[in-house]
């Protein structure tokens, strides 16, 4: 029997502390399903939301890297049955009618809603989700390992696809956290030369173990890559640090591509002269296509893109978020219900 209330990790105020509290379990409406959560990853995007001065919804349940089982169906739901395994991502809904939605770029829909930001997220025992935005998840993947793939894996793979590199070309990955350690695995699978950059020696050691050709301290990484490789074909910044973006820009060879995926309220001044005279392309990358996410799960089943995880209970989430702020998590932290 479904309980009337469940525990959830919530924000009650902008820039407030994350707390665990009891919230009502909603009934699924038309086109929605109720999911009993099995695991949910803790993402730096949650911290980004928590740092904002204004939020569209309060109190707000955080979380958007969810794996669970369908508990109940609302009216009109097709394609899912009670007991089915499902994944939940940052995308809660889109308009489905704009040019972006109709061209396979629904992640850029201007009318999208997002779990853990504009609607309540899934860092809770139960969550209501629109059925069209549930993701099929292979039963063979443990829930705690599959959860980070719903955002960290999808984002890392999507950024590499956005870079458009060919086998044998080089990519510099800045930030060896939850996204970075997965990006190394995807880059190696795609046949790329990989340089990993971070401020943490323990994270660089993990990068070496995952097959990075170079593992570099962040300071002067751009200069080092110019000396050793003549620059990288692409640099992907998987953190919101302006210093990382600066080093990534410096690491590029002429006509290289800079991809930014990390969220931050900080600003970075664009070196206009070098951008123009060296033909540098600068692109933002947000999640990926649905086909990209299907591929992320397929690769994980084959052993590529398996997340290094820490398992935690929900009541530990506030303390784990604080560790994330300090950069102390190796890989990805996951709450297991």
Give me a quick take on this structure:
By secondary structure, the protein is α/β, with parallel strands linked by helices. It has eleven helices and 18 strands.
Give an overview of the whole structure.
The structure is a single chain. With 337 residues, the chain is α/β, with parallel strands linked by helices. The chain has eleven helices and 18 strands. It has helices at 44-50, 99-102, 143-146, 152-163, 178-189, 201-209, 221-229, 242-251, 272-277, 290-301, 317-325, and strands at 5-11, 19-24, 32-42, 60-61, 66-73, 85-88, 91-93, 113-114, 126-130, 135-136, 170-174, 193-198, 214-217, 232-237, 252-260, 281-284, 309-312, 332-336. Strands 3, 5, 6, 9, 10, 17 and 18 form a seven-stranded mixed sheet that branches. Helix 6 links the parallel strand 12 and strand 13 (214-217). The chain starts with a strand and ends with a strand.
Overall 3D geometry?
globular
- Largest sheet descriptor: 7 strands, mixed
Query: Quick one: how many beta strands?
Result: 18
**Element order: H for helix, E for strand:** EEEHEEEEHEEEHHEHEHEHEHEHEHEHE
Give the distance, in angstroms, between the N- and C-terminal Cα atoms: 17 Å
Mean model confidence by pLDDT:
96
Q: Tell me the structural class.
A: alpha/beta
Question: Runs with pLDDT <50, length 5+?
Answer: none
User: What share of the residues lie within helices?
Assistant: 25-40%
Radius of gyration over alpha carbons? 20 Å
Work out the helix count.
11
Beta percentage is 25-35%
